[in-house]
Amino acid sequence: MRAFDDATRRNIAEACAAFARLPDEAEPSALKRAAVVLALTESSDGDDTAFLLTRRASSLRAHRGQWALPGGRCDAGETPVEAALRELDEELALKLSADAVLGLLDDYPTRSGYLITPVVVWAADSAAINPNPDEVASVHRIALDTIEHDDAFDFTAIPESTRRVIRFHHQMSLIHAPTAALIYQFREVLAGRHTRVTDLEQPVFAWK
């Protein structure tokens, strides 16, 4: 169990600092830049550290009803960290400053044309979370113990790709990449492992 306290914040910040991200491509990517947030907060029962996971609103044009980390496309001139903090505010009314950022994980290229930067932040005061109904159907606190279980993730094959599809098992649901891949890499970073996830595949329904 990881209590939601200063010691846990320090430990996670140190794990993120020790993680060497993949270097940026030498040439500008044709993919559109986006950012998501692994927002660390108090678990529902208050005994553990958790991260925030949302269900996307059914009214959205893309990926409606799917599980997702808060986030979205970077605006012109915006850094991934700036985009991540803005999206967290827009989706959940959770306002954090840059000093809440603990680190970044590897950029993940999606089949739908985005390069996603995962930003790990410490959300010390998340009691005032207020989901925006235009974007978020529900918000959930996933205890870090959950993703550290041996059976939290599995890998499967699909005929359309030679790459493995990753799946995160959560409350009778299967959460796929990119969300599952980013959560998986965060789990590995917490364990001190430099595990790459850019080669993990998304299911075909997420390719568009």
**Count of DSSP helices?**
4
Cα-based radius of gyration, to the nearest Å? 16 Å
Low-confidence stretches: none
Largest sheet report: 8 strands, mixed
Q: Name the helicity range.
A: 10-25%
What is the string of SSEs from the N terminus onward? Answer: HEEEEHEEEEHEEEH
Q: How far is it from the N-terminal to the C-terminal residue, by CA?
A: 38 Å
Mean pLDDT value: 91
The class by helix and strand makeup works out as alpha+beta
Count the E strands: 11
The portion of residues forming beta strands comes to 25-35%
* Form type: globular
Describe the secondary structure blueprint for this structure.
Blueprint: H1 6-18, E1 32-42, E2 49-56, E3 67-68, E4 71-73, H2 80-92, E5 101-104, E6 108-109, E7 114-122, E8 136-143, H3 144-147, E9 153-156, E10 165-170, E11 173-176, H4 179-190
Parallel strand pairs: 1-7
Antiparallel strand pairs: 1-2, 1-4, 2-3, 2-8, 5-7, 6-7, 9-10, 10-11
